[in-house]
Amino acid sequence: MADSCAICGQKIVGNHVRTSLGELVCEADLPVDHCRWCARVHRRPDHRCELCASSATHNSREAVSLSRAVLQWLEGHIPGHNMGDIPVEVVAGDFFGSSSNGMTRWRSAGNRLVDMVVQVRSGLPAFEIQSVLAHEYGHVMLVRHPTTGAFTGGLGGTRDDEEEGFCEVLRVLWIDHARGPSWEYRVKSVRDNPDPVYGGGFRRVWPAYVEAGSVTRFRETLFGQVAPGVIDGNSGTERDGHVPDEIVIGGSHRPTLAISPSQRVPPVARNAPPQDSPRRPDISWRQ
Ligand SMILES: [Zn+2]
Ligand SMILES: [Zn+2]
Ligand SMILES: [Zn+2]
Fold first, then answer.
1. Nearest-10 crossing angle of helices 160-178, 199-212
2. What gap in Å lies between CA 20 and CA 237, rounded to an integer?
C-alpha cells in the first residue's frame, strides 16, 4: 500500500505528492484536504476524515465514559487523585468560539471552591476529547489540589504561559501514552504550536517537568516558584487567602490544535526538549 494513493487507492505511477504524514496522493486527486483533527488526507466535504467523523462525540455520557481512561492514566502519575468527581460536559461548539475545544470552569468563595466543571466541544473525535480532557485535568489540579482537594486557584493571571504549558505537558504525556491516529503529528503540533501562551508555555515548562521527574513534583515546583517577592509578590505557595470573599468565577481554555500541515512551524530548537537528558521521560520525539 505504500505506493498507493491515499485518496483513490490506485497505484502511484505518475506525478504525486507526499504529505507530512507520509501519505501519497496522485496528481488527479490534488488539491487535497487534510482532516482538521488528525491531518490525514480525505475526500469528505466537512474537513474530517472518515475515522474522526465516525468517532465524533456529541453527548456528555460518552465524554464521561471517555474520561475514565484519562483518569485511570492520571492515577499512575498522581496516585490517589480525586479528579474523578469533576463533572464532564459536552457543549455546543459555538459556546467556545473557533479557537477553543475545552474549558475548565470553577467558582470560588474566599479560599473555598464552590464548584467546578470541565466542558468540551461537541463533535470532537474520541481521541481528541481525551487529549482535551488531559489538558483540562491539568487546570483542575492547578485550581484544586489533586489529592487534598484544597482550593489553590491556579498559578495566577501573570503566569498563563506556565499554566497552559503545564496543561499541554499533560496533553503530550497522554497522547504519547494513548497514541492513536497521527499521534506523533499531534505531539509535534503541541510542541511546535506558535502560540506564545500554549506552545511557548509548553516549551518553557517542559524542561521543568523533565527536571522534576514526575507530574506531582512538577506541579509542586510551579507552585513553589510563587515565593514572596520572587515573582509576583503573592505570599504562600498555594495562594490561599488571596482570593476575594465574593464568589469568583474562574475559567481556563485551550485553543484548537494547529492542525493543517501548512500551519506548522519549524521546531524551536532553543527550548526544545533535551534530546539526551538521562532523566527524560518516556516520550519519543520523532521528527
Ligand atoms: Zn489518487
Ligand atoms: Zn481524522
Ligand atoms: Zn488550558
1. 70
2. 44
**Model pTM score:** 0.79
| Mean pLDDT (the chain, rounded) | 81
Tell me, in angstroms, the distance from the centre of ligand 2 to residue 48's CA. 5
CB 192 within 8 A of CB 264: yes
Lookup: cell for 13: 505511477
pLDDT for the residue numbered 237: 33
Residue type, position 173, single letter: L
Residues measured by CB to lie within 5 Å of ligand 2, the ion: 35, 37-38, 49, 52
* Whether the Cβ atoms of residue 99 and residue 256 lie closer than 8 Å to each other: yes
Tell me how far the alpha carbon of residue 256 lies from the centroid of ligand 2, in angstroms: 14
Eight-state DSSP code of residue 205? H
CB-count exposure of residue 251 (10 Å: 0-12, 13-18, 19+): exposed
Question: Counting Cβ atoms within 10 Å, is residue 182 exposed (0-12), middle (13-18) or buried (19+)?
Answer: buried
| CB-CB contact of 113 with 151 (8 Å) | yes
Residue 251 and residue 105 in contact, taking contact as beta carbons nearer than 8 Å = yes
**Domain spans of the chain, in order of start:** 57-271
